[in-house]
Specification:
Distance between the termini: 56 Å
Order of helices and strands: EEHEHHEEEHHHHHHHHHHHHHHHHHHHH
Number of helices: 23
Number of strands: 6
Radius of gyration: 24 Å
Length: about 475
């Protein structure tokens, strides 16, 4: 996105209506060296994180604002689509040991220029650059800050310039670490460099943990990555117990197979993160995910609705919103959510269509294979249920075997397992259905409301084995 020209002779206007929601558009790298884009992107992320921690301000997530990189849309349209009153846009020039950041605050409702400033820093002064920019944005928005927020805003995370550089590189790589294995490895390496250079750099330990988590969940990491991530988080929180990212990362670790899928501990940590930063979309999204696993449908819908409002481009939150609707038998709503957000080829969408009697569409929704075996295992479970509902026992059995084979070792196979249980129930095989339900419950999804109210599983009512299993899960 090119910076919109503003008449330099015109002083900034006052804010006619208070700006209560803000989106920070990606800062542009105007440096002679294109490789300095990491600095601009990391600065954008750090500014977003810093400002989103303020209770008096709602800040749109970086992922959603980042979708407007390079757009030529009028700023008023961008603000409306993001649901933001104000926009920050700017640029970064980095040469040698000097950095220049130019930012401007725009009232997105009127496209009026409110304030602009250029920050020149050099050497060690660059360490405080992000805080200086954030403080000036807050001042010109006339936001109300608590003493704790003022102190947090003035804090410099490290006094070691090389450690800070390594940290920014790690943050840059983390943005794509879930989808690119090399970036996960690089993020870990840069974060390790940062904590070696400054062993008291709390934020760098969080970046290190996030790198290990990305490797563990997406790239066949295991117990070693889990342990290293947990050690990094504990060190970060010992240094600074006010880091919401740290609590979200620890929550993700508590809900994994190495720690027994401890949902209660994960929920407690996500709530700790939100107590520090109520605008943290990822914490709301993770909380929604745990409520999904427990079958707390209304609570899950509420949390994911907030996450989508804060981060309209957060695909995982959209998907889990639809999942909560699906689990509570609101199949028409679930399909509408999938279609409204353009969530394609989700296995629960396919089964929702089947429950609505739209079998041709259900089959079509499972047609595309995914490169990730776990996703293909989910799709195979949907095919098994659809085949069972169409009384095609041979195809249902084949797809059940395929799903089980592809999902072997996948720590989140419980969703597919619950769908396989539904397929067995449709075919009148209660013992097999309870087998799959037991697998789902034992691997992090003790979802009594789903297991007792799903249309297929209701067909098992009265079966002694099924009723005994449900009784073991029923909340006391």
């Amino acid at each position: 996105m090119l910076l919109r020209p503003r008449p330099t002779a015109t002083p900034p206007t006052s804010i006619n209506a208070k700006i209560e929601s803000l989106a920070i558009l990606p800062l542009q790298n105007f440096s002679p060296d294109p490789a300095q884009s990491y600095f601009a992107d990391a600065m954008t992320e750090e500014l977003t994180a810093e400002l989103s921690s303020l209770r008096s301000l709602r800040v749109i997530s970086r992922t959603s604002a980042g979708a407007y990189r390079g757009t030529k849309k009028p700023l008023r349209d961008v603000a409306r689509e993001l649901g933001a009153d104000g926009l920050i846009e700017g640029s970064v020039i980095r040469t040698g040991g000097r950095a220049r950041v130019t930012v401007q605050l725009i009232d997105g409702r009127t496209d009026r220029h409110v304030w602009a400033q250029t920050f020149d820093r050099q050497g060690a002064d660059i360490l405080a650059l992000q805080r200086d920019v954030a403080a000036q944005i807050v001042e010109h928005m006339r936001a109300t800050l608590s003493p704790v927020e003022r102190e947090r805003l003035s804090r410099v995370p490290t006094h070691n310039m090389d450690a800070y550089q390594a940290f920014l590189h790690a943050q840059y790589k983390l943005a794509s670490a879930i989808g690119v294995e090399r970036d996960a490895v690089d993020a870990i390496r840069y974060a390790q460099d940062a904590v070696k250079l400054d062993p008291d750099f709390a934020e760098a330990y969080v970046a290190l943990a996030r790198g290990y988590i990305a490797k563990m969940f997406s790239w066949k990491g295991g117990k070693e990555e889990d342990e290293q991530a947990f050690l990094a988080i504990e060190r970060a929180l010992a240094l600074n117990p006010s880091l919401p990212d740290a609590y979200v990362a620890r929550g993700a670790l508590e809900y994994d197979r190495w720690r027994g899928y401890d949902i209660a501990a994960a929920v407690a940590d996500y709530r700790r993160a939100l107590a520090i930063n109520p605008n943290f979309a990822d914490a709301h999204h993770h909380l929604c995910s745990e409520f999904n696993h427990l079958g707390l449908h209304d609570e899950a819908i509420g949390e994911c609705t907030i996450a989508v409002r804060l981060d309209p481009q957060l695909k995982a939150a959209r998907m889990r919103l639809a999942r909560a609707q699906w689990q509570s038998n609101r199949f028409t709503e679930a399909v509408a959510t999938y279609e409204r957000f353009g969530i394609a080829q989700q296995f629960e969408k396919a089964t929702a269509l089947a429950y609505l009697g739209r079998f041709d569409e259900a089959h079509k929704a499972t047609e595309i294979e995914n490169a990730l075996p776990a996703v293909t295992a989910d799709l195979a479970s949907a095919r098994a249920l659809i085949a069972a509902m169409e009384h095609n026992a041979a195809e249902a059995a084949a797809q059940t075997r395929r799903s089980a084979e592809l999902g072997r070792g996948y720590p989140h196979f419980h969703h597919a397992a619950s769908v396989l249980a539904a397929a067995c129930a449709e075919l009148g095989r209660p013992d097999e259905a309870v087998h799959w339900l037991s697998i789902a419950a034992d691997t992090g999804m003790p979802n009594y409301p789903l297991f007792s109210n799903n249309p297929s599983l209701r067909k098992l009512r009265g079966n002694v084995v099924y009723e005994k299993f449900l009784a073991s899960l029923k909340p006391r």
